[in-house]
């Protein structure tokens, strides 16, 4: 005689105990859906950032590891400051050509992303921050309560104020843990 297969309840319990994809897979092994799901939608990457001027580099040189990045309260014109997220994600590069588009190939230069960024944290061998929506059934509430989303702070669009005229803000540098 054969042993009966697991009941649907036992099978479901087995799935529930499986580690989440971000703990099982390396960033390089994730599919497009998993990769996109890592983004918490905080909007910090949509804030304009300033680098200290350096005489040894052209003004438009990319950030180098070890340079100080200063976040401003000036956000991309497409960032929804009330609800978070891009108002035209699919077509954002038509309006903002230098919009961040992270890929596996960018991981070596991920130091320009905020310290709380899931991509950066996983690349650096850390886990997701305790407020990340993936840990709360997709809810943004813990992230907003922790002050980790642009929707928790006073920001303006770059159509209203030039980044260099905005305020330097430190809250994007915290991980909220």
What does this structure look like?
- The protein is an alpha+beta fold and 177 residues long.
- It is built from six helices and four strands.
- It has helices at residues 8-17, 21-24, 32-37, 92-95, 118-123, 141-145; strands spanning 47-51, 69-75, 156-157, 168-169.
- Strands 1, 2, 3 and 4 form a four-stranded mixed β-sheet that branches.
- It is globular, with a radius of gyration of 19 Å.
Largest sheet: 4 strands, mixed
Report the total helices. Answer: 6
Question: Could you tell me the mean pLDDT?
Answer: 85
The SSE string, one letter per element, is: HHHEEHHHEE
Could you provide a short overview of the structure?
About 20% of the residues lie in helices and about 10% in strands. The radius of gyration is 19 Å and the shape is globular.
Question: Which characteristics define this entry?
Answer:
single chain, about 180 residues, alpha+beta, four-stranded mixed β-sheet, 6 helices, about 10% strand, globular, disordered N terminus
Architecture blueprint of SSEs:
Blueprint (H helix, E strand, L loop, with lengths): L7 H10 L3 H4 L7 H6 L9 E5 L17 E7 L16 H4 L22 H6 L17 H5 L10 E2 L10 E2 L8
Parallel strand pairs: 2-3
Antiparallel strand pairs: 1-2, 2-4
């Amino acid at each position: 005689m054969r042993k009966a297969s697991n009941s649907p309840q036992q099978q479901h319990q087995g799935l529930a105990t499986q580690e989440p994809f971000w703990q099982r897979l390396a960033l390089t092994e994730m599919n497009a859906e998993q990769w996109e799901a890592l983004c918490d939608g905080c909007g910090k990457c949509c804030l304009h950032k300033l680098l200290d001027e350096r005489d040894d580099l052209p003004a438009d040189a990319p950030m180098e590891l070890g340079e100080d990045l200063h976040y401003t309260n000036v956000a991309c014109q497409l960032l929804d400051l009330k609800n978070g997220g891009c108002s035209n994600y699919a077509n954002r590069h038509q309006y903002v050509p230098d919009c961040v588009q992270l890929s596996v190939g960018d991981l070596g230069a991920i130091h320009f992303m905020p310290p709380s960024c899931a991509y950066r944290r996983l690349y650096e061998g850390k886990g997701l921050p305790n407020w990340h929506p993936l840990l709360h059934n997709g809810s943004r509430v813990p992230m907003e309560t922790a002050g980790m989303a642009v929707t928790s702070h006073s920001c303006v669009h770059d159509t209203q104020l030039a980044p260099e005229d905005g305020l330097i803000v430190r809250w994007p540098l915290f991980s909220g843990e």
